[in-house]
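so my prof wants the structure for this chain in the tokens format not the other one, which i didnt know existed until like an hour ago. anyway here's the sequence
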Amino acid sequence: MAVVGWQVVEASPWIDVDGIVARPRHGQLPFGTELRTFDCQVVVGEKAADANHEADHPLSGPLRAGKDGGPGGAAWNAWGPLRCNVALATKCTGTARFALSFGSFRTTREAVLTPARSAEVQFDVDPDTWRSQLIPARSGMWDTLTLVLDADMTCAVDEQPPEAFHVADAFVARFAGGE
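here's what i got, hopefully its the right format
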């Protein structure tokens, strides 16, 4: 899933390889740049006022995989906070601004980029916010939430001047409940 050395295609400046969509702003992404993680989990358990207490309720499986305990692998009885983790590895030095969005909701985090370690950020979204953005099931058996990550980076490799780059990724999470 590395985003190394991609060339801009004139017909389409968006490039999709292994589910990672990238739009290099200056022809190529920095050498060694890889979006290592973008996935979310949610606190599961009975619908209760104290569902925000993670010690009392476990986290769902990774939502991106769609292999949780509900029908078709949907997250089952997911009532608590949504936690999304992002890790971006690069061999350049600079900054990154990560934006998580779904529906009309958008939040951002910033991180420092260094060649020595991955930039990691975590988004925690309260249950009322993410559940209000669910797309209700129409003919299927689960509600859905399309989670989108945008990362805008400004970084330099070696002694070169800093350049701006963009990486994006997205997936659809499925939710079911009842009984």
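also thought this was worth mentioning. The CA atoms of residues 61 and 68 lie 6 Å apart.
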